[in-house]
Amino acid sequence: MLQQRCLCLGLRRLCNQVLVCGFCSGTLFVQIIALFADNVAFSASYKAVGKNRKQKRQIQNSCISLLPETLSPMLTFNTFMCLHITVEQPPAIITRTSGPIIALPFDNTITIRCKARGNPPPEYRWTKDGEEFVPPYIMTDHTDGTFVLHNKHLVTFQGKYRCYASNKLGTSMTEEIELRVPSVPKFPKEFNVPIVVKEGEPITLECNPPEGVAPRQIYWMSIGLKHIEQDERVSMGADGNLYFSNALQKDSRQDYCCFVAFTKIRTIVQKTKAAGSRLTIHVSKAPSVRIPGLLLPSGVQTEKVLLMGENLQLECIPQGYPTPTITWMKMGDKLPLRTQFLNFGKLLSISSVDESDGGKYMCKAQNSAGEAVHYIDVIVEDRPKWETGPPQGQLTVIGTDVQIKCSVSGKPTPDITWRRNGELFNDPGSSKRVFDDTVVLHNAQAEDSAIYQCEASNRHGSVLANINIMVMNMAPRILTIDFQEYAVVVGRDIVINCSVFGSPPPTISWAKDETLEPIGGERFFSLNGSLQIISAEKNDSGKYVCVASNKEGKSAVTAVLDVKDPTKIEYPPQDVQIISGTTAQLMCQAEFDESLRGTFKLAWRKDGEEIPLLPEENSRYFMDDGMLQIMSVNLSDQGIYTCIARTSLDEDNATALLTVLDVPDAPRNVEISEMKSPRNVHLSWIPGSDHNSSVTEFIVEYEESQWEPGRWKELQKVPGNQATAELALQGYLNYQFRVYAVNVVGPGPPSEPTERYKTPPVAPERNPENIKIQGHRPHQMDISWEALLPIEHNGPGLEYKVSYRKLGVEDVWKEHLVKRQSFDVKNTSTYVPYEIKIQSRNSHGWGPDPKVVTGYSGEDVPTAAPRDIAVEVINTTVLRVSWTPAPPATVRGHLGGYDVHWLRKRSWLNPNKILDERRSLSFPGKRTHAIVPGLEPFSEYRLTVNVFNKKGNGPNSDPVTFNTPEGVPEQVPILTASNAQRDSILLVWGPPLEKNGVLTGYLLQHHLINETTLEVVDSQETNITGADTTQWQLHGLEEGSLYRFHLRACTGAGCGPPMVQESSTVNPAREWMKSAPRSWLIISLFYLVEPYRLPALLNISSYVSDTFAKISWTAGEEQQDSELYVAYMNNRDGNWLVSEAVNASRSFHVIDGLKPGTVYTVRLMTKRLLDNASIFEGVIQTRVKGAESQQSNFSTQGWFIGTLCAVALLTLVVLMACFVRKQRGGKYAVKEKEDLHPDVESQRMNDDTFCEYSDSEEKPLKGSSLCSLTGDDALGDSVSRDSMVDYADSEGEFNEDGSFIGEYSARTHGGSVSEPSGPRPVTV
């Protein structure tokens, strides 16, 4: 009867019932032909695709194409239909019960299974012990040959069964299935007579255990269920008997019992009490020596046969007195390493024996009386097994010879039985011959198709194979889908499938791109018809054609191969060391074929386990653009990290080692051991893990319970390569210790503290230190010291013995015991040396001998002054003073040094004014002279010297009067160049503020400057002898040329530093411009000046105090956002300081940190075009402290009168210049600017009041534009390269507050100056 199967075809789905070709039944091979079920090409093709559903569907479609042609018109892929198709299949056993089957007493049923696959469905029959057997109960819910035996009368079914499954195509059969029904084990009824032996004789107590279901365990016990003690003399053999090598009196007893346990059936049996062994030992005077013999085995030689893979057990139990020992050896070979000696050496055991374990073994029993030996021949046999696997089914062509070979091995050599469809192969005929393990079918025909059975057996078992033989002819059928697409990366191997079914076996050839030429080359191989390409290259891409042909026909399919770029990690992760608790970053960048982007994935593994990159907030792993970040790294994160770049075709990986550095673990097993004394101990420990950072040191800490319980202190440091410490301890303390390790990461946790260790009390080990002797009072000496720490007391009752005596005289030590850390000695002489020593003691003795220190009693003020004061004037400001020291006895204390006091009585420039300027300097130590700086030139001084000590100053010496010589004057405060003509310039200046002598005149130098190179072309010098001269008209100058002027004030001592100014003479072109129409002139000036225009500021003024100056200005609307820089210079040292940039809208800037009574030059600058271009320069003088009280005397000072005169003269010059310009009909440049940019101040000015100035506290500043502070001034002095002609005639004077008075003109822009963030030095 043919099996009906349903095939449902369609584009959307296949029915879930049954598919043609056997796929619905779950088989892994294709059932195309009813006579052939196993080894066809369909099976290989279907297995090769694995779980690829698409390819399986393609094979199914190929399978459909092989159906009979009468069915093909009915198959379409656009409709759904169910067809009844008959596919014949020979029977094949797929499920069977393996024997032997052991029927246990508590098993209710025994099921023996047999199931086969086939179409028509197989019919089943059974044989038992070679006879036909009809099972009593067949399972109705199974369509197979399985049957069930019930427990009742089960013993009648004991035997060997075999199952046969048959249909019209043949018969398959199973191996024999043995059913064993064991009986309940029990001892036979027997009665043992008492055993009586003499002491020293051997004994054997027999057990004779019953057979039963393995495993079986045997025990010898007493009636009270106590195990009989076994040793080298008494032991149980493998047969269950109890053997005594020699009997002793203690062996006598009445209750030797044998117990047998069968664990699988949960049964224990024992001999009855009546059958128990009773043993009586007759005692003799002394057991006689007996030569060894063997109780087991008997004889000289025995044979042992076992199967390969079983455990070999050889047993030799000796007898004799004294008890013999057993030794084992293998004749001609060594015992294998797997050998074990059990049962006190009497049992040799070798596990899983193989053929090499066979051979002759010898056991030897030996004692003092002699020896006995036994030889055992071990034979290792094997059950039948397939040498190369069971025979495979064959598909062959009609008329060929078929060979069925049954290659088996075994020991003894297996006997082979051949069957055809389950029947013995008794009459093979002329075309069928049996050659032992081979059957040959000559000129096979279709009727020779059948199932042949080969069964090989020996006494240890059997193996059986069902072999399907199909004899037929068929044209090639290619099962692989046409135009199947394959992809591979460069350098990888690829197999292009071409699964073919045909008979005779088709010849398969391959061609590329539909050419007829076959593919060849060392990289192309045929693999069971498929094409294997080794190490694919880019040019391997294309179409490949598989052609299969035999004498029945030909078939072909095309495959498409695409070779892609490989995936490669370009930037692999690098090994990294990271500190615990921080974030680790591992970078991995890969390149891959762009067409595989949709399948590309980057994954990470740690130590082979994939890292889950989950989006949870609590996850510590994050990956972004190839970077793996591990947050809060800990020690568990250490390991090997693998970056895997994977596509659907290939993958690449790279590894990196992440090493986590952490603080060391706490040391373990900290132990104390005493050394030579109880206060010298040895501490040892076991270091913990250093966590990849070597330990640099160990810190030993201690805690004591008496003085500071619970507080741990460092006791000792130990190098990191050492795990011990020698500790010197204080006495009378109860210690405990702990240790912690330190590495570059930091200190680790401390160890567990040790047990308490108490040291005995002892005398103090040291005396007080840092002894201080002070004399706070003249007739008293105060002694203090640094007390011993509490842990240094070493015992109770700590005291200090203070001893002292005068130094250098015969005097006895005076001693006092005190508990505090200070002692006062009263009624001493003033500043007398003493010897002092302090010794510590406690209840257990004195400390070491103390060191003697020297100190002095209290001091008093000196009583005498230095003598012979002499003064040597070195220059105008420095002198050398010398003296004869006061007698040491009068110092009355430790010499501190000498004070030099000097008083400036008068200046010889104003001798009628009495001064009281006092200053002093201290010179420490023992000395006889000193250098006194800071004097004023041309002055009269009085000087005294006194000695001092810690208590105070002694009396002053007799005064010495001296004069300082004249000095050179200071720099003139201002120098202006005005009234420039074609060949002359008028210079106006103010006298120096400090003349330092009688002013004799001025030295004027003027230099002709090359305006291109700024080099000096010509120089001339003029001596101005009039001390009161403050202006000078220079003639004979070149027209239109730039000049630099140096003016120095001079006294009899020489000339002072120069004041520098630059100006230019007038040229004709400039004069022509003055006469041009005003509108044209303004335009021309705009084009000439505009590229270099500087910010215009108005109403520049200053307020000056003793230590600061406030510079104010008014800025126009156009200059509100301009930036300014305020620079100032101390005219004495010539060093410039410049502020940070300030906004002009602030309208003021404060210069702080100035010196009182000092002249400063102030500049306002911009960096708009010309770097640090100066838009204003003026001079200020800070006030002198206390000047208010001296203002009444200003009128009497010559310099003040001179200054007023100079101011008056300058004012006159400016008025004349204004008048001249006014007469010429033109306005000066500043006025034009002011007309364009009027403000509150400028609106109040007119031509008549231009040169007036305010007399308020905030004075207007006057100055002129200077060159850049970083310009190419070769002399480095304050220089203005803009002539006063470019702006306007100016005037200036000094107010009483030191500020410079003057109205600023010309190129002034607004700008504010903020409070300075700090001056900075500049080079001018």
Automatic annotation (TrEMBL):
CDD domains: FN3. Keywords: Cell adhesion, Cell membrane, Developmental protein, Differentiation, Disulfide bond, Glycoprotein, Immunoglobulin domain, Membrane, Neurogenesis, Phosphoprotein, Repeat, Signal, Transmembrane, Transmembrane helix. Residues 91-180, 182-269, 292-374, 384-470, 476-562, 566-659 form the Ig-like domain. Its main location: membrane. SUPFAM superfamilies: Fibronectin type III, Immunoglobulin. GO terms for biological process: axon guidance; brain development. GO terms for molecular function: cell-cell adhesion mediator activity. It comes from the Eukaryota. The keyword Ubl conjugation does not apply. It is a single-pass type I membrane protein. One of its GO terms (cellular component) is plasma membrane. Belongs to the immunoglobulin superfamily. L1/neurofascin/NgCAM family. This is Neural cell adhesion molecule L1-like protein.
